[in-house]
Amino acid sequence: MTDAPRAGAAGQAIDELVARLVAQFASPYDFLRELVQNAMDAGSDRVEIALHEHAVAGDGDDAEVVFEIEVVDAGSGMDEAIIDGELTRLFASGKADDRTMAGGFGIGFVSVFAWQPDAVLLHTGRGTEAWELVFGRDRRFEKHRLDEPFEGTTLRLLRTGRRAERAGIAEAVRDSLWRWCRFCPVEISFDDVAAGGGPERIHDVPLPSDEALVVVHELGDTRVRVAFAVPPHVVLLRHGLVLAEGGPAELLPHAAQSIEASFDHLRVWADSPSLRTDIGRDHVIDDAGRVAVERVVVAKVHELRGALIERLVALAGTTATWSAALHQQYAYLHEHLRCERDALGSALDRPALVRRAGGNAASFGALARAARYGLLAWCEPDAGESAQWIARCEPAGVPVVLATSRCAAGWLGEAAAAVGLTLQHASLAVRPAEPQAGAASLVELVATVLREAKLVAGVKLARMGAEPDALIGLAVGEAALAVVGARTVPQPREQALWLEERHVLVRAAMVHLPVQPLVSVASLALAIAASWPGARDRADELERVREAIDALAKERR
After folding, report:
1. For residue range 314-358, what is the model confidence (pLDDT) as tens digits?
2. How many beta carbons lie within 10 A of that of residue 255, not counting itself?
3. Are both 299 and 230 inside the same structural domain?
4. Shared-domain flag, residues 288 and 164
5. Of 201, 236, 263, which residue constitutes the final position of a domain?
6. Most exposed among 70, 73, 224, 455, judged by the fewest C-beta atoms under 10 Å?
7. If you ran DSSP here, which 8-state letter would residue 247 be given?
8. Residues 381, 405: contact at Cβ < 8 Å?
9. Is 1 exposed, middle or buried, given 0-12, 13-18 or 19+ CB atoms closer than 10 A?
10. pTM for this predicted structure
11. What contacts 97, CB < 8 A, 6 or more positions away?
């Protein structure tokens, strides 16, 4: 090998450059990602990483040892031209100080010095050549030709430490490999030799079982996999090597304008040679390649939205026996649809997405039209219970759908509100009304006011259900039933009103009627008007009740 003097200033500048390159890496163990990349580029089908411990002096956890991280690949290796022209361009020979920055240099190999090894030993061979390179802590190296042939590349990093450090080093190696290399298309293994147990394979596939729907785009070397699932997560890769991962808002900035509504339940796995990183390898460059990948993601999200609606329509309308497993799948898909509600808007009104208690499917629009009182009832998906609630609620103009309490508190309650419906359990929505005698004068006076105000045809006293939690209920049909919690009242208003005999306002009016009849009637009538379905939207009802109270007062003077 020819030696030549090195210019001091140029050498110092290159030393500083190498130091900056090493400092670019977020973790000193990120060099493993670079070595795996180099192995794949060299055509290796495997990369074997091992942590060895060599005793030096002492006993116990405080014993001095030499840690060795060994990385072996079966790639094409390097000949002298590659070693001199690419690998060692930034390093000074131990026998000569000449080095230049001309040509390419191996950033991946530079990264090994982030671990601060005392020595680095490289064995590599290509064709008939085999070489050994030894780097010191100062990064100067010596190169020797080997007599015996050598295939592939083996790199050993050596560093003195204490035995107690081994577990932490092993965990850091493992974490780095699982973070960056778990999707690589080559076989990767890690063996913590001192711990025993043999090699651990570093391998994962982007197929979590909790994903509701998945679509895949494949074109050339680009593969994009988009799914609805929680928690949301994005992984950006090139040739199976992770470049970045995190939340959709962070890693899909260009897609946000189109699909931000999906970010709460979006998983993306995008592997493309169009994705590039900066020199530290942990930041994906914002360029045309990245924009192109994000366009694919946007298109796939729109495809997922359509597939989600189709899946729910098929499930809601299935003729198969409705089971707990089917309902779980149905509710899970609806929770995902909940995330898309704002984005889809009125497109959700017409598809038959909801399973009615009778076994057929209905759209939210159809349910809104069928709900005579703006009230939607739900019941558990139990055949025996469903029949009971259907018989009570459906003839009263209150449609019944299958749901659980979790559905009612989540997606179903939100969907019902979006089409102007109030959601209640079937047992609360339509209740048996037990007529009660007594307080005839109070009931008649209240009925007079409400008839004059054109709210109802008449008033009856009753007990509605187990608890006196509602002041009024609308009487329906000839059966003694009360619709409680109605959102609207159909025109013309000809039905009678059930008044809850146990309600605190009714009890108070009964007590004060003999002493202050007009005050008792007025307070009760105004309370009924205030709780009247739609009163918040039609304040004139309160005014009509006041006018009817004034007319009653004049009549009784």
Report:
1. 999 999 999 999 999 999 999 999 999 999 988 898 999 999 999
2. 25
3. yes
4. no
5. 201
6. 70
7. -
8. no
9. exposed
10. 0.81
11. 4, 5, 6, 11
